[in-house]
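Hi D.,

Good news: the full-assembly prediction came through. Inputs first.
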Amino acid sequence: MRQPFIIVGAGTDVSTRVILPACQRIREMHGSWPNHVYALIADGDEQTRTRYTQAKLPADRAAFVPLSLVQVREALAWRRDEFRDAWRDDWQQLLVQGPDNGACMVPAIGRMMMKAARPAIIQHLRAFERRLDAQGGKAPEIYVVWSPVSGTSRGSVVDLPRYLRAIFPESPIHAVVVHPVGVEELDPAVARIFQANFIEALRLIDHYSNTVSYETWVDDQAGWQRFEGRLVDTVFSFDEQYGNTRFRHLAETQRTLPGRLEALTSRVADFLAGVAGGDPLYERMRARFADAEMHRADRRLAGHRTYLFGVHEARASLDMKAFKQALIERVMERIGGRLAEAKRPEATDAHAQSVTLFGDTLGRAELAGDMTQE
Amino acid sequence: MAEHTLGVGLKFRDGEEARRWLLDHLERLEESVADAADIHQTSATLTGDALTQLESDPLAFRKSAVIHFRDLLSEVTDRAASRAEREGLNVKALERLVLSTLGTRPSHTREILEGLAAGFRERIDRLSVEGNAAHEGGQGELDDALGGLDRALEQAVRRWESAPLGIWNRYRRRRKLKRQGLDHVADLPELALGLASAAREQRPSFEQAWGHVVRAGIHLGLARSYAATLDWLVTVLHGVDDLARQAGELAREAAQRRRRLKGDWTGARVPDRHNLLSLELLDEVIDQLELNAAAFLDRSEVKADQLGAAGRQVLESDLRRWIEARLGALPDAGLRDVLAGFRPDADVSGPLVELLAAGQPLMRFNDDLHRLWPEGHPAQYYVIAGATDDSLHDALADACVAVGLPSPLSEVDAAEAEATGHHLELRVLQLVGGLAWLSEAERLLPMMVTHATVMSEADAQLETREGLRAALRDTLESEAIGDVLPDKLRRSLRELDVLRTQALEAPRGSVLPAPSASGAGGNGSRGPKERPSEDSPDEPSTHEMASAPGRSAERLTATAKGAGEGPIPSADIPN
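Then the structure:
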């Protein structure tokens, strides 16, 4: 059996711009949904649910977990102990009166929604596990996508990898981290929160990329359990500002990807689709990645693991059919344009202005006037 | 204005020069035609025949004089016209020259054609006037001569009727004529001799009339020849007009179709999704295949006087058929051909280096920073390429060397090439590993400053600190997590930031002060204060202070000091 993959992510941008497009491309690559790919999407936004429904993905392979404050209220009522590391009593008003529209900039709320959806998430992950066991395959490679600038995605940084690790203890968990895009154009207050959220997420990811001891609530009967291990094995970084500043010999060392968030998330979707979909180029990339991961990712630099990877696919393509057609049109355009230069200049059209009839010179207007009079 | 070469040896700056050139040659042609031996012989023969009849049979001549006059005019006109056509402007040659130059400089060619037409018009006008005048003069002379002949004949008849008849008189007349050597008329009757004598007296008048007719015939013959050429020129000019109009429409429609082709391929290009279909590539190929208007018009089946006559649709179909036939010579293209613009000797390293530069890993990093630590290992780069053909294998390796990347792992995706058919594609994937977040230090530091500012802001207000920290720090333990950037790196970046700020604010052309005069290498009074030192690593830079919205430097400094004393670790505070 082929190497299985699980693509996981929470939040509207992550779901609608990355995971759903990646899933659709994977299906297009194979003609139907492949057996070795699984996806899990969690979000509280109705738009994401609609997009998920429209995508018509197989629900048993690409699952959607809705998030909401209603779930949080119910979970708090039934399993308050599970929230002991995430709940503050002074948030009661926020929980009661806060809008349940899926938009939350506060990571704490995002995290509580993730915790409230824990049973559904675990259920889907266990279903994936059972299918993989039945297929007798290897431990899946897990790609967790984070765009940790606001609520839901940022709130999933702590708990989502714990749930994944609890179900798939042997799987490598690769984080796909999308950097903030266009913060300089945002409202300054929002931009500050986004940047603070992002850095906070990086600190958490960096922390959990080491072998640490952590507590998590996976099962209601078992309650809090302490584990020791690594929640994030490697990170793939995606940023619209890119380039190796060491390459000073290039004319432009620092580049900005045109197209902003849409372009950047499209590249992330390409990456995920290429990896999980079995694109030959990404197959070769995975082999090199495994090599680098084995030899480099566990080294340390100033106390930090060197587990960060950057990737980018550039393409140059030409459709020969379109090229020949364009060539024909271009030749016609050029020849036509050149021959059109032979048009008689109106200003010097002396012969068009007057005609000679039996020695009498008549102007056009005069002749037309005579004819009109007749 | 540059000279325009219309064939070998013909260079015209403009239509006026072409007109003058033509007039000069036409004058010489007219002199040549006027002196032509065949025209002289024809006119002499016809004149002689007519005048012989005048003397031998004046009455018959009187009846057919106008016919002789017209025959002479017609014959001389025909001879002059045919000679002018033979020795005049070579229309066939002009046609090929026009067709060959119309495609390169159409407006100039048109101007020259108009100049030639103007020259012909001018000469035709002049020759027509002169020819008509000569003809009218000849006609008048003929009328006068015929009037004189009528009168002389009448007198001869009258004299014959009034003279007494007698044998002796007739004998003496015959003897007199024989003595004069006119034996052949000596036996004619008296009346015939009288009429012949009367007609002979009018011969000079008829000769003068015949001379006018010959001149008129030459002028009119030349004018007729010129008119035929002018007619051809006008037809060509009208054809050029039609062709220009049809070609303009054709060009506009072709441009629209080309723009619609493959959507927005002519629009803004994404550097890492490079569509090789570009106007530059098309133009390069077109130039190499010489698919131009001159070549299109220079085909043997094109007639100058039929340009534009067939209509726009026929022009379009002809043009399309011709292009497709020429494109058949285009070789089966590979990626290298396309990148090189189908030039066999072109270097493709440049475009590949651009592609590699645009396709750097999607993170702003510096893989040199790890060398600041003894245990640092270089980042590991991989370049993986997949192409529909292997024509770029060596060039890609050269480009990687030029950029500073390792040799690429390059493979031909044969299955993809087969599946895509007419699609050429090069995909280059760059992977870099063995980095840490500190490799992105320059990118992350401003955000880390903002992060520290946001986290410390609540401290200054002493109201929502706990709530804010809890909301943004979703786990209590995260407060104790270390920073992702080492202090050593932060200090270096701060210093770099200060130096950059100073360089930006320094007046252009200012001379650096001596170290003894201004302190520790500062620029003005701000230097020593802004430059961080090892003793005060936590002093904020001006850039960081400026980047903290709504806060003064003092407040930020106070916040930093307060934060250093409080529960928030100093690593979270902007230094």
